[in-house]
Amino acid sequence: MILHASLIEQADAFSGNALLLTGPARVGKLAVAWAIAAAQNCQGARGMDGEACGVCRSCLALAAGAHPDVLLVEPRATTATGKAARRKLIPIGAVLRERDKTREYETHIYEFLEVRPSFARRVVIVGGAEHLGPEAANALLKLVEEPPHRALFLFLAEDRRSVLPTIVSRSARLGVAPLPDHTIESALIRSGHEADAELVAFAAGRAGVLADLDGVRGALEDARELDNSLGVGLLSALEAAERLEKRFDPAWHPEALRFTWRQRPAHERARADTALDALQSALEAYASPSLSFQVFALNVREAFGLS
Ligand SMILES: [Zn+2]
């Protein structure tokens, strides 16, 4: 299902080598990038908005995650020293095999582009382009300017201003905006789900939420359960913290917790947010998870005036 159809059309009309897709987290940038890569290589009859047919050999290979002409490069979380905060980075080792000392990347951009496309066009998707290190970005410049075999670069970033200017200046920009609620609703219904109001509100127009409905539903349920347990008593709050620890997914739970307490008074919300930030920092610093979750539950109880 193509949710950002007009963008596929725009990308189709684009004759350059590099597009910078910007938009908030989980708005659907990666899905747009896959759809562009699919359209560029599709060998069947394309749809009304130029979208890929979905049934040709190229489309099937892409759907199976085995397309020879599409490479997705994403940052790795690196640990600087000991317990120092982990930093996301796309290192030069992602571009050049000889610089990938620790064999972090299976395929390297430079070598990937030396090979002719099997279908129509090689596409390199760089997710989290704001995490491109200066060395990696420099190594990419020549490739972006004159890509072998007319390859296409798709850089994805939340904010254009946090991407290195050398990349921004060589890319045309494509903004990926949140969708209207009714589009999210009908997408849910078309994929056989219930379009419940809470889910639609949580999605706030972000198509990326649709890609992990189980994860999102689970996180919302866990957040609600914690919220209910906080008021019951200290013991029940600590038990809920333990359950939350076991199920905690950094991708969804922090947001689900904030969503659950969105209608509380501002001062309560601010203190609960602080407690959540402290929990996330503690987890990133490898503090004891069970203790961190207990402290978190106690702090949120206090934030809501329940202790
Ligand atoms: Zn096709």
Automatic annotation (TrEMBL):
Coiled coil: none annotated. InterPro entries: DNA_Rep/Repair_Clamp_Loader, P-loop_NTPase. Transmembrane segments: none annotated. GO terms for biological process: DNA-templated DNA replication. Pfam families: DNA_pol3_delta2. This is DNA polymerase III delta prime subunit. It comes from Deinococcus marmoris.
